[in-house]
């Protein structure tokens, strides 16, 4: 698992990257009440705001960590946004993307580096 | 950068898992480890304990209550003179243009008036009262050494009655002195959640003792500002600076009920407060716009600032959301805002622009959740 400075986790699954938010991010957000996901097939660039996530208190965005194409989204989050608080590292993945170059993941933090960031 | 002020229970909140945020110049608990949803639900089903010590507690003194009341009536459009001893009432400071410069609660405590005003407005309120009431022989004192706790929810009455049976005798908007586990408080049976409950003014150095006594009851849990906001929104209650401002009149805001007959045209003490001509004319003829409840049809919350339209496409905006978010008891998004009178009928379908898209919402009667007061 790799981590971004935007508190996203990235997991390689075959030739796609699965993206979600970290436990730290989900705790900071508070109770999540709404998630809006991108369309499958969307071409995205790193830094694009592609997911809207709203907690009881505020709205925030999740950005694309890399250039690529959205190949799957977790539709269950639309009906059960609370999953983001219950299981942020598992059931509450947001989207899967096909990236041009998987080796780009090496530039992101590993678990220890991320733990340092949020400590 | 100016440091936020710390309230008497600052460390107590941190020790109980609070997430502290700046609010109106104070470090305030926005939520505890339970989270906003659970804290909200707890207040609707049991009893939530809120620290609202940031609010301004003010005492007005003068020759007697009648003198004090007559003086205060020059600043607020409500019947102060006719308020019985031991009773509390909602009021508004109005501006010469008919706007609202703060909303407040005041109580007739016999030889003095006890008032609670909003934190963000308290310096201005104090200056306003000192300028206008001091020449009329009224002293205005901001109490700096008292904390204010609110215990809100259907179990609040039983929790306090176990500590002082006199609490059970209080009705909605009564005030009384209670002794709770050895701590003397000025209690009012009121609050800002739509639930039955109490606000307890306590000497700052006894605030923690009082909080601990209340927390010993299993029905009581700490609740932060986040749930306070969602509770008052579901209850259709205005947040000063958002739903009511110097740019909104009491009549537009749907607060005409707070202006008793005796202060209206034809009443014994009609007018005589700032903006009376505008406000009283609006009571007679209606205001051009109205504060309404709004239920977005989808799941996306529509928050303060969302612009409202009469149609899905084209046309100029007709209004704006002034408070909005997620209503935990309603299980969906909920909002309030201002629209022209013609669009204010419950059932009217409007559109709110969110992230460049127009999404439908419906005008709904307020409150969204019926009040649960012990009248």
Describe the structure.
The complex is a heterodimer of chains A (119) and B (375). Chain A has a single domain, classed as OB fold (Dihydrolipoamide Acetyltransferase, E2P), CATH 2.40.50.100. Helices cover 19% and strands 37% of the residues of chain A. Chain A has helices at residues 23-29, 76-79, 83-86, 111-118, and strands at 2-3, 8-13, 16-21, 32-36, 43-44, 49-55, 59-63, 68-73, 95-99. Chain A is globular and about 35 Å long. In chain B, strands 10-11-12-9-3-13 form a six-stranded mixed beta sheet. In chain B, strands 14-17-16-15-18-19 form a six-stranded antiparallel β-barrel. Classes of the chains: A alpha+beta (119), B alpha+beta (375). At the A-B interface, β4 and β6 of A face loops of B.
Features:
heterodimer; A: 119 residues; alpha+beta; OB fold (Dihydrolipoamide Acetyltransferase, E2P); six-stranded antiparallel β-sheet; three-stranded antiparallel β-sheet; 9 strands; 19% helix; 37% strand; B: 375 residues; Gyrase A, domain 2; Elongation Factor Tu (Ef-tu), domain 3; six-stranded mixed β-sheet; six-stranded antiparallel barrel; 19 strands; globular
List the helices and strands and how they pair.
The complex is a heterodimer of chains A (119) and B (375).
Chain A lengths: L1 E2 L4 E6 L2 E6 L1 H7 L2 E5 L6 E2 L4 E7 L3 E5 L4 E6 L2 H4 L3 H4 L8 E5 L11 H8 L1
Antiparallel strand pairs in A: 1-2, 2-3, 3-9, 4-6, 5-8, 6-7, 8-9
Chain B lengths: L9 H6 L3 E5 L2 E6 L4 H10 L1 E5 L4 E6 L3 H8 L15 E7 L5 E9 L3 E6 L4 H12 L5 E4 L3 E7 L3 H8 L11 E6 L2 E6 L8 E7 L3 H9 L4 E3 L2 H10 L41 H10 L3 E8 L10 E3 L9 E9 L4 E9 L8 E6 L2 E8 L11
Parallel strand pairs in B: 3-13
Antiparallel strand pairs in B: 1-2, 3-9, 4-7, 4-8, 5-6, 6-7, 9-12, 10-11, 11-12, 14-17, 14-19, 15-16, 15-18, 16-17, 18-19
């Amino acid at each position: 698992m790799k981590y971004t400075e935007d508190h996203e986790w990235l997991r390689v699954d075959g030739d796609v990257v699965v993206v979600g938010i970290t436990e730290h991010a989900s705790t900071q957000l508070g109770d999540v009440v709404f998630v809006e996901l991108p369309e499958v097939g969307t071409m995205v660039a790193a830094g694009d705001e592609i997911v809207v996530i709203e907690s009881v208190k505020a709205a925030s965005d999740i950005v694309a960590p890399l250039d690529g194409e959205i190949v799957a989204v977790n539709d269950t989050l639309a009906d059960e946004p609370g999953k983001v608080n219950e299981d942020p590292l598992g059931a509450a993945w947001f989207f899967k993307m096909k990236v041009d170059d998987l080796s780009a993941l090496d530039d992101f933090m590993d678990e220890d580096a991320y733990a340092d960031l949020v400590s | 950068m100016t440091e936020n002020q710390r309230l008497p229970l600052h460390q107590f909140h941190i020790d109980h898992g609070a997430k502290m945020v700046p609010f109106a110049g104070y470090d305030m608990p926005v939520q505890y480890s339970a989270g906003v949803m659970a804290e909200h639900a707890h207040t609707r089903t049991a009893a939530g304990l809120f620290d609202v010590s940031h609010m301004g507690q003010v005492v007005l003194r003068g020759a007697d209550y009648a003198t004090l009341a007559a003086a205060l009536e020059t600043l607020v459009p409500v019947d102060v003179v006719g308020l019985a001893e031991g009773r509390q009432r909602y009021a508004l400071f109005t501006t010469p243009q008919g706007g609202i410069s703060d909303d407040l609660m005041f109580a007739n405590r016999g030889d003095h008036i006890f008032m609670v005003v909003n934190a963000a407005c308290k310096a201005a309120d104090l200056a306003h009262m000192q300028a206008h009431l001091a020449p009329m022989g009224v002293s205005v004192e901001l109490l700096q050494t008292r904390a204010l706790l609110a215990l809100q929810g259907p179990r609040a009455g039983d929790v306090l009655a176990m500590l002082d049976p006199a609490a059970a005798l209080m009705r909605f908007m009564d005030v009384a002195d209670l002794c709770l586990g050895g701590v003397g408080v000025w209690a009012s049976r009121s609050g800002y959640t739509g639930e039955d409950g109490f606000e307890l003014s306590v000497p700052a150095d006894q605030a923690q003792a009082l909080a601990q006594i209340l927390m010993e009851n299993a029905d009581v849990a700490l609740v932060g500002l986040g749930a306070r906001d969602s509770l008052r929104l579901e209850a259709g209650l205005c947040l000063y600076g958002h739903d009511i401002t110097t740019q909104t009149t009491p009549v537009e805001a749907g607060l005409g009920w707070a202006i008793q007959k005796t202060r209206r045209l034809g009443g014994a003490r009609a007018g005589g407060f700032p903006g009376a001509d505008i406000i009283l004319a609006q009571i007679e003829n209606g205001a051009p716009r109205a504060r309404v409840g709004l239920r977005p049809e989808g799941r996306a919350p529509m928050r303060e600032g969302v612009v409202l339209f009469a149609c899905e496409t084209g046309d100029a905006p007709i209004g704006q959301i002034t408070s909005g978010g997620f209503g935990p008891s309603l299980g969906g998004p909920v909002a309030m805002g201002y629209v022209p009178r013609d669009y204010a009928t419950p059932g009217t379908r409007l559109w709110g622009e969110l992230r460049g898209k127009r999404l439908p919402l419906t005008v709904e009667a307020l409150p969204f959740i019926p009040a649960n007061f012990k009248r």
